[in-house]
Amino acid sequence: MANERLRATMATRGMTAETLAAAIGIDPKTVERWVNTGRVPYARLAVPAAEVLQEDAMFLWPNLHQGRSARALSPELVAIYGQRAEMAPAVWFSFFEQAEHAIDILVYAANQLHESVPGFNELLADKAANGCAVRIALGDPDSPNVAARGNEEKFGHGIESRCRLALMHYQPLIGTRNIEIRTHGTTLYNSIYRADDELLVNGHVWGVNAFGAPVWHLRRGKSATMVNTYRDSFDAVWEQANPVA
User: 42, 118, 178, 207: which could form a disulfide with 128 (CB 3.0–4.6 Å)?
Assistant: First the structure.
């Protein structure tokens, strides 16, 4: 299916496949495939192309940040992102926005949710108002495990401050019906984000900040082996976490 948005934008800017390709240093046939077949480019090409066209890359390619299909590997595995940083704010918003029954967040800080997703607190409050149970487990800034994680990350110094900042971000939601916030001091091997039967699992890699580590998008299927494993892990941490007054 042709990419009519890209075609129209190129026409408006007076650019052909040849001129756009020359501007970003690729073969014109690649641009022609983007236009005529709807092929989605890699982000490393889409972003400079969008800049040349003076347009937002997500407008030209709405599926740009959906991740690589991984259904052939496992029926539960929807997509894999090489780095959390590849995930656009719109991906995070749509992931949580689809939830009807349950939202779970298990992290140390994950301040990117408030810093890049517009109206994140309002989104959670709206979901809670409609009966969705929201559970948020944040890192205890005084936990030695949190401090250890900061020492292990490449740019991890100050993770305790990030945990305190996360608590400040969620402060307006404390006491909201159907929303519960707790702090935990566990060793966190993965950050877990749940929206009903779907999970985003951000792996933790020694010496690498979470934004540079992979993310698995899982959806509960008939077997649900992977999804249940991470959901059980969340529940285990939640049971020993301390409620925030």
Answer: 178
